[in-house]
Amino acid sequence: FQNQARFSIDEAQEVLSWIEQVTNVQFPTDPLTLQSAQDVAEALKDGVQLCELMNDPNALPYNRNPKMPFHKVCV
Taking the CA of residue 58 as centre, how many other CA atoms within 13 Å lie in the half-sphere pointing to its CB? Predict the structure, then answer.
């Protein structure tokens, strides 16, 4: 129940709308009509949009310049 107290439907709707914009794959239900964490979970349940998001190399900028010495050795 503690996680539900921190859940924001407005933020969830914003994230789902962003996923639609980035992937060009629409959710079956308009994200702006979702009303609860359960609705958001149901929208993401099949994983199609999340897989499309992960497969888009330009979805999130990735900085491959490690700052810590340990990571610099491994790269």
Answer: 3
The DSSP call for residue 47 is -
Neighbours of 53 (CB within 10 A): 16
Nearest C-alpha neighbor of 43 from the set 52, 35, 55, 31: 31
pTM: 0.69
Q: DSSP for 26-42, please give it.
A: --SS-GGG--SHHHHHH
* Whole-angstrom distance, CA of residue 36 vs CA of residue 34: 6
Q: pLDDT tens digits, the chain, 75 residues: what are they? A: 456 678 999 999 999 999 999 899 999 999 999 999 999 999 999 998 998 888 877 766 666 666 666 655 544
